[in-house]
């Protein structure tokens, strides 16, 4: 049993969502309307910060780092905001996993690491709060990673992101970026859709500069020869850089030589759209996941013959939207 030994009055809507207690007797609590700090010894409110957003429960989960004097609020939309433990003022720092509802937040004993156990996605996200770790600097500010690094790791493909962009098809302006020097190596001519790496120095996508799906030189932006590809194709450049693999809505999967950009036999056929493809280092074995009627099926395939060499793993299929037939123009 529990016994109520005292009460502390706080603003309405300020203490029913999440709560954390510090070692010196402060309570940080949140509700739908406000975030509040309370001193237990004096039973008084230290500060209150009223939320200005229309989103419900903007601090559904919270954690405190006393060592760094920070409060971390996670919301239902994949965003984590840092506020001052002493005043409740936003610091301007955001640590956004962007994976739906943030979920439970905890801080390590030394106060230098924040962990989020996702409620919207089955993901654990970790951040170093002291500036150390694998990621210590930002590059290409104002852009998002469109297709990551090329096989050599010397360039990264980024896309400009406007404030109104919410979907991948909103990204239409691409740049090949030098991550070491943090400068643009090539502004991809015109606009495009679903751009990505097609090899060590080639890009693949639907580009208005050539008015079709095709290949561009990643150093000069000029058109490269290559076999035609269906505009609705999805594509994967294997991690080894030895094969570009494309899938079409008719269930076909085609391997392409990144050096010549020519199709390789055989063309594989499956009962459903291939939604994920990866391969071993020499590209002799492909792991292919297909989706049909809400069912996802994954198997290993001999790339030279198309023969399945493993049993099938069956699960629920993700929602996949094939690439649009024409690049959208944004004013």
Can you describe this structure in just a few lines?
This protein is mainly beta and 331 residues long. The chain has strands spanning 18-21, 26-30, 34-39, 44-50, 61-65, 70-74, 80-84, 90-94, 104-107, 113-117, 124-128, 143-149, 156-160, 174-178, 183-187, 192-197, 202-207, 212-217, 223-224, 234-237, 244-247, 252-257, 262-269, 273-279, 285-292, 295-302, 313-316.
Write a structural description.
- With 331 residues, this protein is an all-beta fold.
- The chain is 0% helix and 44% strand.
- It contains no helices and 27 strands.
- It has strands spanning 18-21, 26-30, 34-39, 44-50, 61-65, 70-74, 80-84, 90-94, 104-107, 113-117, 124-128, 143-149, 156-160, 174-178, 183-187, 192-197, 202-207, 212-217, 223-224, 234-237, 244-247, 252-257, 262-269, 273-279, 285-292, 295-302, 313-316.
- Mean pLDDT is 90; it is low at 320-331.
């Amino acid at each position: 049993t529990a016994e109520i030994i005292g009460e502390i009055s706080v603003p309405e809507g300020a203490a029913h969502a999440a709560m954390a207690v510090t070692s010196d007797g402060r309570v940080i609590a949140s509700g739908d309307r406000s975030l509040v700090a309370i001193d237990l010894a004096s039973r008084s409110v230290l500060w209150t910060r009223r939320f200005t957003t229309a989103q419900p429960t903007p601090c559904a989960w919270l954690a405190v780092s006393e060592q760094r004097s920070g409060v971390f609020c996670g919301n239902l939309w994949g965003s984590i905001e840092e506020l001052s433990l002493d005043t409740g003022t936003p610091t301007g720092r955001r640590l956004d996993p962007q994976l739906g509802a943030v979920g439970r937040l905890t801080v390590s004993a030394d106060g230098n690491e924040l962990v989020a156990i996702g409620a919207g996605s089955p993901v654990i996200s970790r951040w170093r709060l002291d500036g150390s770790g694998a990621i210590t600097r930002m590059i290409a500010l104002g852009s998002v990673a469109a297709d990551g690094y090329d096989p050599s790791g010397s360039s990264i493909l980024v896309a400009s992101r406007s404030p109104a962009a919410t979907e991948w098809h909103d990204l239409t302006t691409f740049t090949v970026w030098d991550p070491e020097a943090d400068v643009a190596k090539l502004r991809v001519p015109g606009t495009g859709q679903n751009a990505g790496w097609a090899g060590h120095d080639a890009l693949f996508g639907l580009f208005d500069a050539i008015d079709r799906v095709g290949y561009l030189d990643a150093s000069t932006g000029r058109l490269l020869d290559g076999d035609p590809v269906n505009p609705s194709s999805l594509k994967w450049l294997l991690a080894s850089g030895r094969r570009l693999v494309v899938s079409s809505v008719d269930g076909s999967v085609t391997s392409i030589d990144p050096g010549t950009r020519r199709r390789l036999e055989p063309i594989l056929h499956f009962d459903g759209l291939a939604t994920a493809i990866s391969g071993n280092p020499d590209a002799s074995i492909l792991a292919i996941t297909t989706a049909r009627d809400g069912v996802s099926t994954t198997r290993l395939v001999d790339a030279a013959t198309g023969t399945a060499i493993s049993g099938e793993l069956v699960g629920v299929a993700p929602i996949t939207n094939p690439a649009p037939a024409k690049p959208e123009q944004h004013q």
